[in-house]
Amino acid sequence: MEYFINCNTSSLAPYTNPLDQLRASHLYRRLGFSASVSTIKQAIGQNVGTLVDSLVDQAINMRPIAAPTWANWTNANYPEDDDARRQLQNQQKSEFQLSYANSLLNNNLRDRLSFFWSNHFVTELDVYNCNAYLYEYIDCLQRNSLGNFKTFVSEIGLTNAMLYYLDGVFNNGNNPNENYGRELYELFTLGEGNGYTEEDIIETARALSGYVERGEVGCSPVTFDASKHDAGSKTILGQTGTWGYDDVIDILFAQRPTEIAEFICRKLYEFFVHPDSKDEANNAQTVIDGLAATFVSNNFEIAPVLRQLFKSQHFFDEEAIGVIIKSPVDFYFNTLKETGFNYTDNNVAEMVNYAGMLSQEIFDPIDVAGWQRNRTWINTNFMIGRWLSIESILENFYTADNEQFRTLGLDITGNVGLTSSNPDVVARLIVNFMLPKGLLDETEYEKAFAIFRSDVEDVYYEGGNQESWTLATWPQAPFQVYLLLQYLARQPEFQLK
User: Fold this and answer.
1) Structural domain harbouring 128
2) Is 228 exposed, middle or buried (0-12, 13-18, 19+ CB in 10 A)?
3) Cβ-contact 161, 134 below 8 angstroms
4) Contacts of 395 (CB under 8 A, 6+ apart)
């Protein structure tokens, strides 16, 4: 697949044109896991600023997932028998994974962001292996996903999942563990080697020490033990004092605001706009600088940055559309949302399982640096996996209710699907809805049209025929839409958003 170079020269100035279908689809594919045909059509003609504010406000006001019954369980709450305990833990994990997957499907920007932050403030359930810690971690991601970044950094560092994952629970004052201090700077706030020294890491580890009291029962909440904290003087980012955890966060944001803002805004840019942010030929750096200035001037509130970005000409420029490779979760969930097919928890669980097989297991990024996204999702094995899995998924939906394929086609094509006897006109509308920018050229469209025509004889496509074909009435029409979707799912353009 061709690597997309960022040629976007548009600015952060507001995009003022009414939304067309291309940009309405783009907005929902980037701010969430896409949307239904009706939602996208309702967005056509709307004012960008009004719609974006509505989506951001909705995300801010959304409640986190309700606490499961086991949210505060320790090992004492589980059966003593090893197999029974393991079975119950796995059942809880699967149920919560499904609950979160449904949240990704239903909550647009809030959980698009919580998923983004899970790949920034990385933990791995396989490492800390405690479901109560998992719930606390996801709750923290959801509550802070559009909130204050400084508060977010402070809270996430004291979640039990993070304390275990990055060895904070082993950070005793008399024997400091540098793991979390290093990642706080390198991965979470500043970027590798940017604005800190090895001595800063050592001194920071001393300041972060003391969160080591793990209780007598496994999976108990970690608490602070003052006797295990290094209370001596430390010098961090040029500031000297008897610093503790809160002081580290205060010093970091006071002394390195510009570096933090640039690092985080670049990550947001690469996630929401274009993976290429450093080519001098584009306007990305100017845009990132503008977002960073907004971030700092708003005391590290995330929402104002997102409002500015999502309302901008830069975000809606044609060069920003269809240039990000779908992650496995995107690949399945976008298809589910855009088709509007009736689905069950079993369908969602199947997609979550397929995503895991393609190296994106929810709750378990591959390492502390997270999934690297974009081109890493595309290799020979992964592509074959995408093709085979999406074929199976679409086949299951067709077997369950083939008429929903006709319904999808009619939802997309509207009056054209009701009246036109020209299948190529109908197919083009379906193709252009399902793909960010359609197919490469007319030769590729002709291939898709041939698939869509299926085995229906040409005579039925002639308007004067008494039994002329229409999407609304032809018995084989659901199968035609099914064949077209199967074909499109294998195309390079379908892998993009």
Assistant:
1) 75-106+121-255
2) middle
3) yes
4) none
Domain assignment present for residue 385? The answer is yes
* 489, 387 contact by CB (below 8 A): yes
Which residues of 211-360 form beta strands (DSSP E)? 234-236, 239-241
In this prediction, residue 463 carries a pLDDT of 62
Please write the tens of the pLDDT for every residue from 361-411: 999 998 999 998 777 888 888 999 999 999 999 999 999 999 999 999 999
How many CB atoms are located within 10 Å of the residue 299 CB?
A: 12
* Encoded tokens for 389: 């899995």
User: Do 390 and 349 belong together in one domain?
Assistant: yes
Query: Is residue 409 a contact partner of residue 391, using CB atoms and an 8 Å limit?
Result: no
3-class state of residue 235 by DSSP: strand
**pLDDT (0 to 100) of residue 465:** 63
Q: Count CB neighbours of 333 within 10 A.
A: 22
* Same domain flag for 414 and 477: yes
Instruction: Give the per-residue pLDDT at 2.
Output: 42
Q: What is the DSSP string of 313-341?
A: HHHHSGGGTT-SBPPHHHHHHHHHHHH--
From 320, 337, 361, give the residue that closes a domain. 320
Nearest CA to 273 out of 321, 305, 226 is that of 321
Q: Which residues contact 465 (CB under 8 A, 6 or more apart)?
A: 421, 459
- Same domain? For 280 and 414 the reply is no
Structural domains in the chain (count):
3
Residue 10 is assigned to a structural domain of this protein? no
What local confidence, expressed as pLDDT, does residue 1 receive? 38
Considering the domain boundaries, does residue 15 fall inside one?
Answer: no
**CA neighbor of 108 nearest in space, from 3, 179, 34:** 34
Last residue of a domain, one of 239, 255, 271: 255
Nearest to 313 by CA among 17, 6, 7, 4: 17
- Regarding whether 340 and 480 lie in a shared domain, the answer is yes
Cα radius of gyration rounded to whole Å, the chain: 25
Instruction: Note the helical H segments in 69-148.
Output: 82-106, 108-118, 125-128, 131-144
The candidate with the shortest Cα–Cα distance to 219, out of 141, 164, 177, is: 164
> What is the C-alpha separation between 195 and 264, in angstroms, rounded?
14
**198 CB-near residues (< 8 Å, 6+ apart):** none
pTM: 0.96
